Amino acid sequence: MTSERKQKIVALLKGIETGDPESVAVVNPNKYIQHNPQTREGGEGLAALFKRLSKTNPRVNIVRIFSDGDYVFGHTEYDFSSSRVGFEVFRFEGDQTVEHWDNIQSRKGPNPSGNSMVDGPTEAEDSGLTETNRALVKAFISSVLIERQLEKLPEYLSETYQEHNPVLESGLDSLRSALEAREPEGAVQYQTIHHLLADGSFVLTGCEGLRGQVPTSFYDLFRISEGKIVEHWDTSETIPPRSEWKNDNGKF
Fold first, then answer.
1. For position 226, what pLDDT does the model report?
2. CB environment 118-149: b (16+ within 10 A), e (fewer)
């Protein structure tokens, strides 16, 4: 069932290119909970969105796709009127998806180390270490990004750490400097972990926090090897004010 669910999500996302309403057949319209604040509730809202997007001649590339229990999560590239990178999370009940979250930002880079926002390994390994890796990333987010115990960075990150954030270099020093930044407009503050999904060597987190004083959602994908984080991809997105939401479900 896991493989079939991933195939259905790939077909769903590729439906953005065609606008074909049949591509949303995997969505249960009676139960579907939409967490993208800019998208209306239900399968019909998704079909209308796909039809509108298809008129811009979009291209969709699913770079990575993973599963964790009833969840399928993917790392995607979108070329609409501009190039974007995103993470998509779907929760299944049986053969259909009943809930969706995403986090999408404009594509930038490559970063100072020459890495793009999506390149690097794509296949999960070490399936037997899924729970160990999930716990490692949870501890890293909690102690380093939320509690800001930056002295613990070497406990979690490999000396060969590769960074795909478009403005950071690979290595611990660049990340430490970014986390130490206190400029009001750019300072990042993680506050709450909402999603913690894992598939072998890959772990995706969805967190709520602030960039400066602006409510922001942070999605981070980590690759773990030999007990350390060796690679990182991310997107961040401003959470719009409640008055602009097209559904009542919230970003998370």
1. 97
2. bebeeebeeeebbeebbebbeebbebbbbeee
> Using the 8-state DSSP alphabet, how is residue 150 labeled?
G
Which pair of tokens denotes residue 108?
């930038």
Question: Which pLDDT tens digit goes with each residue over 132-147?
Answer: 999 999 999 999 999 9
Q: DSSP 3-state assignment of 247?
A: coil
- Burial level of 252, CB count in 10 A (0-12/13-18/19+)? middle
Instruction: List the domains of the chain with CATH numbers.
Output: 2-109 (3.10.450.50), 127-238 (3.10.450.50)
What's the pLDDT tens digit per position in 89-106?
999 999 999 999 999 999
Cα distance between residue 210 and residue 191, in whole Å? 8
The DSSP result for 17-57, as a single string, is: HH--GGGGGGB-TTT-EE--TTS-SHHHHHHHHHHHHHTT-
Give the residue among 1, 15, 9, 222 at the shortest CA–CA distance from 120: 222
What's the pLDDT score for residue 185? 60
- Pairing outcome for strands 202-211 and 214-225: antiparallel
State phi, psi for 83 to the nearest 5 degrees.
-90, 135
Residues with Cβ within 8 Å of residue 160, at least 6 apart in sequence: 230
Q: Which residue has the higher pLDDT, 47 or 204?
A: 204
**Residue (of 155, 151, 199) closest to 176 by Cα position:** 151
> For residues 148 and 86, what is the distance between their CA atoms, to the nearest angstrom?
26
Confidence of residue 40 (pLDDT cuts 50, 70, 90): confident
